Automatic annotation (TrEMBL):
<feature type="active site" description="Proton donor">
    <location>
        <position position="286"/>
    </location>
</feature>
<dbReference type="GO" id="GO:0004301">
    <property type="term" value="F:epoxide hydrolase activity"/>
</dbReference>
<feature type="active site" description="Nucleophile">
    <location>
        <position position="163"/>
    </location>
</feature>
<protein>
    <submittedName>
        <fullName>Epoxide hydrolase</fullName>
    </submittedName>
</protein>
<dbReference type="InterPro" id="IPR000639">
    <property type="entry name" value="Epox_hydrolase-like"/>
</dbReference>
<feature type="active site" description="Proton acceptor">
    <location>
        <position position="338"/>
    </location>
</feature>
<feature type="domain" description="Epoxide hydrolase N-terminal">
    <location>
        <begin position="3"/>
        <end position="104"/>
    </location>
</feature>
<dbReference type="Pfam" id="PF06441">
    <property type="entry name" value="EHN"/>
</dbReference>
<dbReference type="GO" id="GO:0097176">
    <property type="term" value="P:epoxide metabolic process"/>
</dbReference>
<keyword id="KW-0058">Aromatic hydrocarbons catabolism</keyword>
<comment type="similarity">
    <text>Belongs to the peptidase S33 family.</text>
</comment>
<dbReference type="InterPro" id="IPR010497">
    <property type="entry name" value="Epoxide_hydro_N"/>
</dbReference>
<dbReference type="InterPro" id="IPR016292">
    <property type="entry name" value="Epoxide_hydrolase"/>
</dbReference>
<keyword id="KW-0378">Hydrolase</keyword>
<dbReference type="InterPro" id="IPR029058">
    <property type="entry name" value="AB_hydrolase_fold"/>
</dbReference>
Length: 360
């Protein structure tokens, strides 16, 4: 499969249209006097949109993004950083939703002392094509296996991810234990549990209660993705509101979004989604979610560094032990949320170095 160098280049016309739309945004009023109680605070959104229209320097962001080596092969966009050490272990890092390859760019340079780093964009996200069939985590794992072994020529590699990326990483460890040296996830593994312990049942009850409060976003994306996409693909203010809402909720930021995501980083990601028109195709993994099957036992050595977010409060290690046949590393650091690689890059680097060093 041919590997082609790739460069991010958003046209002046697209940027001019974006700024015009931002300046014409019709803002709403808050439904609740409590800050962010009913979703993105309209005052904060007005400030963010104003900066996006008249302060944010996309060209500087684009230059920074292009300082990393980008490629495309077989419809997959990826960043590929060669490590400093000959024979270093290849490591594939997979993001989730509503994220992007940008999530991994802070940690990637901290890994090249020991690893070749590959950061793909999930299918349908930004510069990666949607699959011809349904979007499943297993299907992405099979695509990643092809990318790493056939396209890039690695005989053995490690894998890391959270959220959707965590599911893909689990499948890599289950399907390819002979070629995958180890798998490291930050999203807790939640397998089918036919006979939960009291501790496990308490956690599952907590998760069900949390989902009632949190799952509104996913309900519409798996049931009516095209309706929502029509709005977000036409309104950049709506697009960034939809993304920022989840970044604030799921990051370990104490309610202060910009503790984890400064405006420039947030708007870099929003501009990428806008310029590629892929917020709708990023919903495909929700619409196709019923096609996913439970992950079989993961035979590759496994590691969990548990993210600090409400969904995983009280998560018992025993749930991970039910799925990982060889769980070598388990840690609850108490910091770093859903997007841990971006929020706590030094922590993630240390965890990855420690885990994979133990496998040598």
């Amino acid at each position: 499969m041919d590997i082609e160098p790739f460069r991010i280049s958003v046209s002046d016309d697209v940027l001019a249209d974006l700024r015009e739309r931002l300046r014409r945004t019709r803002f709403t009023t808050a439904s609740d006097a409590t800050y962010w109680a009913a979703g993105v605070d309209p005052g904060y959104l007005r400030e963010l949109v104003g900066y996006w229209a008249d302060g944010f320097d996309w060209r500087a962001a684009e230059t920074w993004l292009n300082s990393f080596p980008h490629f495309k092969a077989g419809g997959v966009h990826f960043v590929h950083l060669r490590g400093d050490r000959a024979g270093g272990l290849p490591l594939i890092l997979t993001h989730g939703w509503p994220s992007s390859f940008v999530e991994m760019l802070r940690v990637a340079p901290l890994l090249t002392d020991e690893f070749d780093v590959v950061i793909p964009s999930l299918p349908g996200f930004l510069f990666s094509d949607l699959p011809a069939g349904v979007f499943t985590r297993r299907g992405v794992a099979e695509t990643w296996h092809t990318l790493m072994t056939r396209t890039l020529g690695y005989e053995r590699f490690g894998a890391f991810g959270g959220d959707i990326g965590g599911g893909v990483t689990q499948w890599l460890g289950a399907l390819y234990p002979d070629e995958v040296a180890g798998v490291h996830v930050t999203s807790a593994v939640i397998p089918d549990v036919p006979d939960p312990t009291a501790e496990e049942q308490a956690y599952l009850d907590h998760l069900a209660a949390y989902d009632v409060r949190d799952q509104g976003y996913s309900e519409i994306m798996w049931s009516r993705p095209d309706t929502l996409a029509a709005a977000l693909n036409d309104s950049p203010a709506g697009l960034v509101a939809w993304i920022a809402d989840k970044y604030r909720d799921w990051s370990d930021c104490g309610g202060d979004l910009e503790r984890s995501w400064d405006k420039d980083t947030l708007l870099t990601i929003a501009t990428l989604y806008w310029a590629t028109g892929t917020i709708g195709s990023s919903f495909r993994q929700y619409y196709d979610y019923p096609n996913n099957r439970p992950v079989p036992p993961i035979l590759a050595p496994g590691a969990v560094t548990l993210s600090n977010e409400p969904a995983f409060t009280g998560y018992p290690r025993s749930l991970a032990e039910r799925l990982f046949a060889d769980l070598r590393h388990y840690r609850v650091p108490g910091r770093g949320g859903h997007f841990m690689a971006h929020e706590e890059p030094a922590q993630v680097s240390e965890e990855l170095h420690r885990f994979f060093a133990s496998l040598r």
